[in-house]
Amino acid sequence: MTLALVRRGIVYLLLSIAAFVSIFPFYWMVVGASNTSADIIRGKTSLGSALLTNATAFFTQVDAVRIFWNSGVIAVVATVLTLAISSLAGYGFEMFRSRVRERIFGFLLLLLSVPFAAMMVPLFVMFSQAKLVNTFAAVILPTVASIFIIFYFRQTTKAFPTELRDAAKIDGLKEWQIFLFVYLPVMRSTYAAATIIVFMANWNNYLWPLVVLQTAENKTITLILSGLTAAYTPDYGLILFGTVLATLPTILIFFLLQRRFVEGMLGAVK
Amino acid sequence: MTRLSMGWKRATAVALASVSLFSVAAASASAGEISVWVWDKAFNGDTMREAGAIYTAAHPETTFNVDDTASQDDIRAKLQTQLLAGSTEGLPDIVLIQDDIAQKYLQSFPGAFEPLSDSIDMSVFAPYKVAAATHDGKSYSVPFDSGVTGLFYRSDYLEEAGFKAADLENITWDRLVEIGTEVKAKTGKQLLDLDLNDTGVIRMMMQSAGDWYFNADGSLHITDNAALKKALETYAKFYQADLVKPVSGWAEYTGAFTGGEVAVVPVGVWITATIKANADQSGKWGVAPIPRLDMEGSVNASNQGGSSWFLLSSSDNKEEAIDFFKTVWAGDKDFYQDILIKRGAVGSLLSAREGDAYKASDEFFGGAPVWQNFSTWLGQIPSVDYGTFTAEVDSAVQAQLPTIIQGGDIDAALQAINDQATQQMQ
């Protein structure tokens, strides 16, 4: 009995430490947004009274509406396109048999190990020749065929009951109709989970937008936040206020899709 | 069936929406608009805006577009990717580059930058600034801010320990260690704060002796570099005398001296704004010349950081840009007074020191003519060739610092730095 209690105590202690480690930076960010830069540097961890000052400074220095619009358009369009293309690919890889299927898939997984920085220069040359530098399309296109999401969809499609597809075929549905009206509704948890993953990745995307977006009016929030830290005397209050704002959309999406996200990660098919 | 047609409508809408993404075309700089990339809104951004406004007032057909939304690292990443890709589309006309990396760009991307020494008289600028951007006999930059160093100190702490301003004039680093030991004994304050991931102090010591990591031919100058050896020994002395408050990262570094935890800060003049931001410390600070190394050839003047303006060869507005450099940056003394007062920017135009702002005294620093002092030291900074691999050698030096401060053998450390840097430079 006591042994079980001790064991449980240890478990909770470890969990508390882990929870603290993951929650504290978040707490500090929120609290920092209400403190002056000088207080933040001194390590103050309680709420301050500079929230309005920071907000005013942020909104005068940053064209917030435009920047969030840019980030939003890029993240939403990229998410829709990525889900459409990568889920089709995942579906195809699992449903259609072919002799070279596993080899192509293996090759795709191999490509996952190529760091993005290595592809940056050739990619830039491509987009420069296509006259797409400094457009949102240049930010979005390289991300839509996401190997990880293809892999994720293929794995979850393994749990998709093939009887459904067979039945639909007998009812006379074409392959694209099966995908749209049978597969898609059944897999909605997987789509929800993938939405969160892809939206976050695009919202936080940094290196490629940095290189390919050039004028200030096309930049995304991550680029602007990075720029704010560059000053010789950075205003940490302002930066943390911007960081809090930048975090909100991802949090919102996560809470909206939270239940389905958990289902999707468990691979549930209903 | 209706569901199907709905689906198609939606799909078409999405397709149309994505097409419109392609047409957010590159807003290329219009004729007569000079675009500039900088990285600090309040400092180099507003300074360049003001310079642009002065020029536009006299030449209304030329306007300026100063973009300060990227950090310095971001600018480097963009510039490097594009120059490597051979695409100049969307690059600005003028870009700000830090001096210690200028040679890397000039040598790695020949032809990317416009030589300026043919059309602008470089002798009006501090010689060490011009040397930093001179390659194959041509100078490619218009010097902007100087990183002339000073020894910022808390006059109240030093007074408590019985030292006056004159005691810090013309001293060596070894003498500073002695002073620091006494200050610590009397006030309990550490002498200075150091970050083991930052070689700034070591580099300024080395440059005060007119030396750097490289020989004239670009080869490594490490194992036989007496100035570097002396600098590392001095660095170790701070730790052995237990005078260092160790910090990590920029926020902690500035926090230690703005929070009154250390007695001195050896640093570039650009830190002035950070120090003066704490108005309650007015009158408690002073600035002395930077100490020198205890060796032949070392002077009480050095440099840390600082940057210069470069004109890209791909610019469509080269003539206007050069004329702008000539009239404002190489000629307008009043402009330099203004940016000193408003932004604490110490420019590199030597004649600027004759202006009123440079002669004024500053109550924050106990009424001393700090700007006049800085500009005097500015003219004394030894020129060095920053080479192309400073960043690589820096990281090799950083790797040895933990051993060095624990009393490790300096010659062995120099050998290790040499080995690691050789490997990185291949």
Any overview of this molecule?
The complex is a heterodimer of chains A (270) and B (426). Chain A has 270 residues and is mostly helical. In chain A, helix 4 (64-95) packs across helix 8. Chain A is built from 14 helices and no strands. The two termini of chain A are 40 Å apart. The model of chain A has no long low-confidence stretch (mean pLDDT 90). Chain A has a domain at 63-224 and 248-266: MetI-like fold. Chain B is globular. In chain B, helix 8 crosses helix 9 (226-240). Helices cover 46% and strands 14% of the residues of chain B. In chain B, the strands form three sheets. In chain B, strands 1, 2, 3, 6, 9, 10 and 11 form a seven-stranded mixed sheet that branches. In chain B, strands 4-5 form a two-stranded antiparallel sheet. Chain B has 426 residues and is an alpha/beta fold. Chain B has helices at 2-22, 41-58, 72-85, 99-108, 127-132, 155-160, 173-187, 200-208, 226-240, 250-258, 272-276, 318-329, 333-343, 356-359, 370-378, 390-405, 410-424; strands spanning 33-37, 63-67, 94-98, 134-135, 138-139, 141-154, 192-195, 244-247, 264-268, 285-288, 303-311. Chain B folds into two domains: 34-147 and 305-378, Periplasmic binding protein-like II (D-Maltodextrin-Binding Protein, domain 2); 148-303 and 383-424, D-Maltodextrin-Binding Protein, domain 2 (3-Layer(aba) Sandwich), CATH 3.40.190.10. In chain B, strand 1 (33-37), helix 2 (41-58) and strand 2 form a beta-alpha-beta unit. At the A-B interface, helix 2, helix 4, helix 6, helix 7 and helix 12 of A face helix 1, helix 2, helix 3 and helix 10 of B.
